[in-house]
Write a structure and sequence with these properties.
Blueprint: H1 35-49, E1 53-59, E2 62-65, H2 71-74, H3 84-98, E3 100-108, E4 114-119, E5 125-128, E6 133-136, E7 139-141, E8 146-150, H4 163-178, E9 192-196, H5 203-218, E10 229-233, H6 242-258, H7 278-288, H8 290-303, E11 308-312, H9 322-334, H10 340-346
Amino acid sequence: MSLIAKRAETRTEGWESWEAGGPAPTSTSHPTGLVPFFAAIRHIVDFMSTLPVDGYRYDGAARTPMPTLPPLLRRLNDPGDIGIGNWIGQWAYGLAVNGNSVGWVTAIDGFGFPIGIRWLRRQDWEYSEYERQWYLFGIPAPADRIVHDPWIVPSGCRLGLSPVEHFKAFWAAGKAAQEYADVSRGGGTPPAILKNNRLQLDPVASREIQKRVRKSFASGDPFVTGNDWDLTMLTVPPNQAQFLNTLQLTANQTAAIFGIDPREIGGSATESLTYATDESRSLNRANNLRPYLVRLENLLARLLPERQFVKLNVDATIRTDIKTRIEVQGLQIQDGRMSVNEARALEDREPVAGGDFHNVPAPKATPQTAVPPTQGGAQ
């Protein structure tokens, strides 16, 4: 049995055990139960995993597009594999949640370059700073079979920081506020009143009914018993209006931690500036997630053969109105930065004969040097 196929007998519980490919958390204390935190992860993973990926090769000083992607990425789209988008999404998830994306090299080519990498769940790997040793499922693993991409690395360390570890106290406060209306929790203002119109219940009977109702609601099932019962669900009282403000603050702070616009995860704008167009929103989103893009491109550049690299096409996410798009394409055709067929391809149109020509403007004539007048004056 290979090392990557071996499974540990026990798994740790809590947020650390939830990684791509692992079981979904069921505890309500899980930080991802907080809406802004989950929204931030979703925003980062969705953006990264849906970008088109283009392969390039350096031929001398020129950058030439590759007809196909490098094998490391191309094989991900083979039948039975997870696809490039999901693979990138797993990388982004590990980076955003754990501060580290750790993968196992499953295959290499004849030149020693990886052509297969599987991203691991957080509970499957460990790294000893003292021993400088990687462990997979508790077994020492060779460093040359490990792919590690950290987020923010403190001085003297190799592993990156996890935002969950360092800010879970803040998120716990937000989670507690969010759970105010959860009928399965105890304490605070009661979320509901269950009244019997015929019987006067003693404290022991009331407590027993309360336990049964809470257990029923926690499981998602309706509570049914006896007759003459009235159930009244309470709304947030005026003195708990800060509940909504707490959620809004949590969203803004979470967005600041991940470096994204708070409006992307349900927060409020921190300034009076608003998106004028869809294009400005797309540009803002791409600019905020640029650090993630650069990290992934740099990682792939280290893994691919020399002179090969990939770029994530952010331009594909920028939406402009038809008039602006046509005008920009016309200017690029006019000054030679784009051919007619390249512009037609962007519009999903068939190429035309002679459309691959680039209109390179002729260089401007060198200005003539003025002839100084003779001593006797102008002739």
